[in-house]
Amino acid sequence: MFIGHWAPAFVAATHPRAPRLGTLFIAAQLVDWGFFALLLTGAERMRVVPGITAMNPMDLYQMPWTHSLLGCAVWATGFAALVWLLRRDWIAASIAATVVLSHWLLDLAVHRPDLTLAGARPSWASDCGTIRR
Q1: Between the chain's N and C termini, which has fewer beta carbons within 10 Å?
Q2: Where are the domains of the chain?
Q3: Strand stretches in 5-110, DSSP E
Q4: How far apart are alpha carbons 49 and 46 in whole angstroms?
C-alpha cells in the first residue's frame, strides 16, 4: 500500500540537485504519517469496515488536513520550507514538495472516492460518518 508512494522519490532522486533519497522517502510518506498522527488526536477519522474494498478494510471518511488537495499542498509547502532551511536550495525544496504533493495524485488513482479538494467531507458521507446508500 505505501510502497507505491516511493516511486516519485526514486524518480526525483535522479535529479542532480535533489535532496537525499532518505529525505525523499520521508516526503513520499509525510502525508500518511500526518494522517496517523491526526487520527490519534481525533482531528481525522477512519474506521475498519471489512469488505469495503477488495484490498483494504479502512473507511477513511474524514481526512481534511492530510488527504485533501489543499491539505496536501500545505504539507508540501511546509516540507519545502524545511528543506530550504536546511539546504538553502530552492530546486531541492521544490523537488521535495513535488514528491509530497505526488502522494495526493497517486492516492486519487487508487483510493475509493474519499479524497477532497479543500477538505470538505465526501458527499457520500453523512454527518455521523456512515456511508449513504
Answers
A1: C
A2: 3-50+57-110
A3: 45-48, 58-62
A4: 9
